[in-house]
Write a structure and sequence with these properties.
This protein has about 210 residues and is an alpha/beta fold. The protein has a single domain, classed as Rossmann fold. Helix content is about 60%, strand content about 10%. The chain has helices at about 15-25, 30-40, 45-50, 60-70, 75, 85-105, 115, 130-145, 145-170, 185-190, 190-205; strands at about 5-10, 30, 105-110, 125-130, 180-185. It has a 5-stranded parallel sheet with strand order 2-3-1-4-5, sandwiched between helices. Residues about 55-80 have low confidence and may be disordered.
Length: about 210
């Protein structure tokens, strides 16, 4: 089944673009509901998956996980159920994505989908980016943050995404060769960028 993956800088409007592309093509969209499915299959709160998706664990988290694996009763005084590992979360995420794509044409937002699904002839990989000032302005409006806090949020979130991809797939998240289309949504706007993706998809997939 044909699929489009949308990778995006925080603040580039990638999720909004993906929703418009899916609507224009009449394809299913896999975005935040993917987190709900992963959490349900793992039997953990959605917040736990959200906290760990598309970012590498902190040093403190890694130390705590290692200690808990060795002696979980240290923290509670009794045996406890351990949180799912990064590898387990990735495995379940990959399964959910693959099942969705098998069900029909799909637009997938983030979550390393372009690497999870590998090199496929029926795929179109898109990267959305914008200038830092535009990323900051969008995040400041969306999250009601000051410009300073929004810029800090943008820089840290995008740094985490780069580290996440490098850690799990040993690839550079920002490298153009990973994508078929790299679109500056700050310059194009979401509507024009979405129309470009739709046009290319129709030409490529028929």
């Amino acid at each position: 089944m044909p699929l489009i993956t949308i990778s995006r800088m925080v603040g580039a409007g990638g999720a909004e673009l993906a929703a418009r592309v899916a609507a224009l093509l009449g394809w299913q969209l896999v975005d935040n509901e993917l987190v709900d499915s992963v959490a349900q299959r793992l039997g953990v709160p959605v917040a736990e998956v959200v906290e760990r998706e598309e970012r590498v664990p902190s040093l403190g988290q890694r130390i705590a996980d290692a200690l808990a694996l060795g002696a979980p009763e240290v923290f509670t005084g009794r045996p406890t159920t351990l949180p799912p590992s990064e590898e387990r979360i990735l495995e379940v995420t990959a399964n959910v994505i693959e099942e969705a794509v098998a069900a029909g044409p799909t637009v997938v937002v983030g979550r390393g989908a372009q690497w999870v699904l590998g090199e496929r002839d029926d795929s179109l990989h898109v990267f959305c980016y914008a200038a830092r000032a535009e990323l900051t302005a969008r995040v400041a409006t969306r999250l009601s943050l000051s410009r300073k806090d929004a810029e800090k949020y943008v820089l840290e979130s995008n740094r985490q995404r780069e580290q996440y991809v490098r850690s799990h797939w040993n690839r550079s998240w920002l490298a153009q060769e990973n994508y078929h289309l790299c679109l500056n949504t700050g310059w194009l706007g979401i509507d024009r960028a979405a129309s470009i993706v739709v046009q290319v998809a129709r030409e490529h997939f028929g």
